[in-house]
Amino acid sequence: MDSWDGILSREVGYEQPAAVVFSRVDGWYRIRLPDARPDARYGGIGPEDAGTWFPYAELPVNSLAYLTEAWSGHVWPEPGAGIPARSPRRATQERHEYAVEVHESAVVGGTIWFRITLLSGSPCEGGDVGPELSGWVPGYGPGGEPAAWYYSRGC
After folding, report:
1. Are 73 and 141 in contact (CB under 8 A)?
2. What 3 state SS string does the chain have?
3. 138-107-72 Cα angle (round to 5)
4. pLDDT tens digits along 18-58
5. 125-153 pLDDT, tens per residue?
6. Fewer Cβ close by (within 10 Å): the C or N end of the chain?
7. The pTM is what?
8. How far apart are CA 57 and CA 36, in angstroms?
9. Residue 40: its pLDDT value, please?
10. What are the residues whose beta carbons fall under 8 Å from the beta carbon of 97, sequence distance 6 or more?
11. Are strands 74-75 and 85-86 parallel, antiparallel or unpaired?
């Protein structure tokens, strides 16, 4: 590959983009390629070209975080266990970000889970923001996109 343009990335710090890594095996990082054929959407970066590793399970914890459009709207009482509660706001809210506090992460059965408290509003918009729903959400949506992220630049 001659260019890094178009690689799926997210900002992990102020104007500090990082490639989204879908898996890591033997030091190799699986990333989504730009404009690739549907049967070849992913490629690998070797350790010598990868740069700094930012583990997704740590990034949104204790940060100004939100759930993305990839979030299903369900919150589990335990990581991957129990009967999930559904947030009524997920079905009615037009925005695609839902303010949360991310308290910790856990890996269960190879899946990252975040223990969250869904907030009634955004801390960035001011006003009284209280807890609405608490529990665990999977780290990825059905399409493999991150379901939790954070504002790397603050409000």
Report:
1. no
2. CCCCCCCCEEEEECCEEEECEEEEECCEEEEECCCCCHHHCEEEECHHHHCCCCCCCCCCCCCCEEECCCCCCEEECECCECCCEECHHHHHCCCCCEEEEEEEEEEECCEEEEEEEEECCCHHHCCCCCEEEEEEEECECCCCCECEEECCCCC
3. 5
4. 888 877 788 888 887 776 566 667 888 887 887 787 888 99
5. 887 888 889 999 999 998 888 899 999 88
6. C
7. 0.81
8. 27
9. 61
10. 66, 67, 68, 69, 122
11. antiparallel
Beta bridge partners of 18: 10
Angle at alpha carbon of residue 29, lines to 24 and 35, rounded to 5°: 130
Indicate the domain borders of the chain: 9-50, 65-150
